[in-house]
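Regression check, beta-D-fructofuranose case 512:
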Amino acid sequence: MKKVFLIGLCVLSSCAQMNKETAMNNKSENQDVYSEMYRPQFHFSPPSHWMNDPNGLLYENGVYHLFYQHYPEDIVWGPMHWGHAISKDLVHWENRPIALYPDEHGYIFSGSAIFDKNNSSGLGTDENPPLIAIFTYHHSEKAKLGTDDHQTQGIAYSLDHGENWTMYKDNPVIKNEDKIRDFRDPKVFWHEESSSWIMSLVAGDHLQLYRSENLIDWEYASSFGHNQGAHGGVWECPDLFPLEVEGETHWVLLISINPGAPNGGSGTQYFIGEFDGYTFSSEQKNCLWIDLGPDNYAGVTYNDVPNEDRIFIGWMSNWNYANITPTQKWRSSMTIPRVLSLRKTPNGNRLVNTPISKLDSISKIQPLALDQKEARQIHLQNDEDFELMQSRILFETELDFEMKWKNAAGNTLLISADGQEILVDRSNSGYVDFEDTFATNPIKASLADLQNEKVHKIEVFVDHSSVELFIDGGLVSLTVQVFPEEPFSDFSLNADKEVLDFKAYAVERIWD
Ligand code: FRU
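Current build output:
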């Protein structure tokens, strides 16, 4: 008995040793891997190789899952898998093994995940209900033949909180009998009022809604958008969810389109409307965009977040140049998570995206900014505690100002506002000529939705190769990639009127 116990102890302790070693290996891998030039330090990016859209955003059992479009053999788009990472706070991430691999039905394109808590699918048990991933299969051989039925919808399930996944045996669950060329990106949620699972799916130039009781048999319910919104490109990555504003509930539909965004290439528009379990409708006449910069695409929101917070993550790139940005071991990262809300403005209701407050836990205030916190001109430089490339800057002023980042190589990034418009000029920001439009497309956004106040709150996050700007808590936001030849080391702010409450924070690295 004693011997068995001892052996058991040894096995346990060598197991613990092994776990420790694996953990340490992962640790040192992260140290090496997450340190390349341009590597974001407080945004999620894959350990290596290609990434595009966020997929299967789900909170379950205390964990935020982030699956993502991933090609694990190259740094360009290829046969899609679902990569996987988890987080307890949406700030620090742990990489997990690849969740979904292509099979005989095709590559695994974008989609969503839900917790089937009543085991309505029968794919788990009442005691151990499954997580279900719902995604698009893209059959590349069929696509080459041009038969137009190469995109279908499939499901997979996990009985261990998302670690291991099994493909459903009778996939696909939605075939493509109408032969719709672009038929993809299912986002599923439970609609309590009509006791049904609802799937939003895009079909080229419009949205289709489906209903199901078991996540396997789906019935078409309605369509939306043939004649509404922007149609400069294919509709992709829908998401439909309710939000409250001043006691009223409205439904918001996100639709990514590529190309056709206001600043060229890819962008995500939204519609505010109503949904009755079967039909989405919207009176909205103008096109509205969640982010007015060029580098926030295919974003969707989490299912099942406590307190019904609606948390959004987007892919920080643009199909115009996503495959050729100047990184070597990995490509692209996600936006910081943002909480979505509706706000009433004189121009109507608007969707606001605000950085999650948990980011405060990794933001360290820099005293160097405090002595100039109310000047019209503010100047910051790197020092041993503060790197502009990994920073967060906050201030308040009127909408006439210019922010400039520069480095010793002569690269500059300019963000300026003239009361009417905000302009981001990255034409001289470093490596810009890997693609024609990266530097030449002027990045502009109207400030028309901000006109009722004089003084506005400006917040900028810079993370090595990205800049995320939020005005008035995200009523206007712009996300932009930059690739300076060397890190920016000097920042100046010139404002026409008084600057109030200027603060600079160093942001901690999230990988250990
Ligand atoms: C959006 C998208 C989706 C598709 C996926 C393929 O960026 O084109 O529509 O499912 O990427 O990787």
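Comparison notes: Residues 52-53, 69, 80, 109-110, 136, 184-185, 236-237, 298 surround beta-D-fructofuranose (CB under 6 Å). The domain at 357-507 is CATH 2.60.120.560 (Jelly Rolls). No diff flagged against the previous build.
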